[in-house]
Design a protein that fits this description.
Blueprint: H1 24-28, H2 42-51, H3 54-57, H4 77-99, H5 112-121, H6 131-144, H7 148-151, H8 188-199, H9 213-219, H10 226-230, H11 247-254, H12 265-289, H13 294-305, H14 322-331, H15 335-346, H16 353-364, H17 381-399, E1 412-416, E2 423-427, H18 429-447, H19 450-473, H20 488-493, H21 500-512, H22 516-527
Antiparallel strand pairs: 1-2
Helix pairs in contact: 2-5, 4-5, 4-12, 5-9, 5-12, 6-19, 6-21, 9-11, 12-17, 12-18, 13-16, 14-16, 15-16, 19-21, 19-22
Amino acid sequence: MTADFPRDRRPSDLDQDLSSGYDPEKESEKSVDRDTEDQRRPFERDRDRILYSREFRRLKDVTQVARAGESYLYHDRLTHSLKVAQVGRRLAELLEKFYDAEFENLDNYLDPEVVETASLAHDIGHPPFGHEIEELLDDKVREKSGEDGVEENFEDTEGDGRNGEEGETNRDHDSEEQDESKIQGFEGNAQSFRAVTRLGSHRSGIEGIDLTRATLNAIQKYPWSRAADAKTDEDTDDKWGYYPSEEGYFEFARAGTADGRNKILEAEIMDYADDLTYAIHDVEDFYRSGLLPFDQLLREAGELRNQLPDDFGEDDDIGQHTELLRSYAKSYDMKLHDFGQYINDDTNVEASIEDVLSFFVELRDFATVVEEFYTPYEGTQSERNLLNEFSSSMISWYLEATEDDPGDREYVELGEHDEDGNPTLLVDNDLRQEIEILKQLTFYYVISNPTLRGQQKGQIQVIDELFELLYDEAAPKSVDTSAILEPYRERLNDTDEDDDTARARIVADMISNMPETQAIEMYERMSGARPGSLQDTIMRQ
């Protein structure tokens, strides 16, 4: 980051309205007096603002995998975010300790406080229930915005990133003709950016939570727009980081960033901590609840381990024996083989059946995998202690937290990703593969569970109908006598009567800012299923 674009500068420091666009020349000419009686550093203030925000608090009632409130044992979005923040901060501190002497001015690229804040905020715009609701809201906003013709540009009929035409990807089709300002929709990461820049509350006269440039940049896991995503052949899973309405804030956040489309280092650390954290705590959650047969998988891994030569040791290459493992697992109809087949055939994870089997055999020999894990979880004090110890040691392993010399680090390191020497996070491919395998356990055994699928169908129906009910209530000429409450009524009154896109966006804002219990109560009231009390105001903001 250059002196013209300081990392600790906030949108409120500028003499320009970022909702109308961003002019870097005006900022580079401005000197900002940062003297304050507040004892905290700017990045510490960012962290505290997120913790005190309504948008963050609501995550306690938003689904991680199992429905929020179903059991106190399951992680919700709030507890998940807190763990991502803890893991992200610790990794940042480790890397800062090891590489401070190697990278000049490393503090211009890495601050543990920024990583922690971005981790706390990374899911802050996530809508009720789950990713299916993201897709539903995307369809709804685009439909109301008159973008039916745009939908085919993103259609993937074969599941391979192509739109059905030989040699032509769906991202290429008519992408040069798309007007970025008209490509709307909904995406959880873009909504999180909108939540902290536009929708959140901090002080009178200031839009959003007013976070520093560094924090806003670190939140950007996908630092590009939907239109830019459509024009590239990179595999981004149709993810993007901001809506056209927040383009000025995005440009402000990225000003002075030399790495183009790349995430900055702090965002890379946050992203890795996110993957690592939910991979491990989901396995912990669903082994504990009996939905994930972790005990049987480990027992089968023990059987496979017994097929290896008697003199096989931890320094030997298990890759020499993968064909033996696969043949044995298939012959005895092991769950491990079925799961490996699923990884190989039905996911984008770059792992074979042999990779899956080898990983579990090696996991079987992990120091904290003990005999108690070979039977279903019963909740004894010993099992609880051992499971916590296992989770802690796994996270330490994937951070290389036990190394005390940078020369000993092999798997999670800092490197340079451009000619300017900007640092980037380097994670060994084997570690990333293992994390993906752990994540897929939850998809295979839990998310595909018919009971959960049944819940999701009902949740989709609730939000689908709620969106339509609220959209009708948000009609320009009737909003003052509608069921729309503040602050959304005020925002609707400030929009053009013919601006269907703005109307759809505000309805999506309303829904995505609801806890799940609130969304259900609002739906029941507006549909007549449960009218409720006149004194019970559901959408208290």
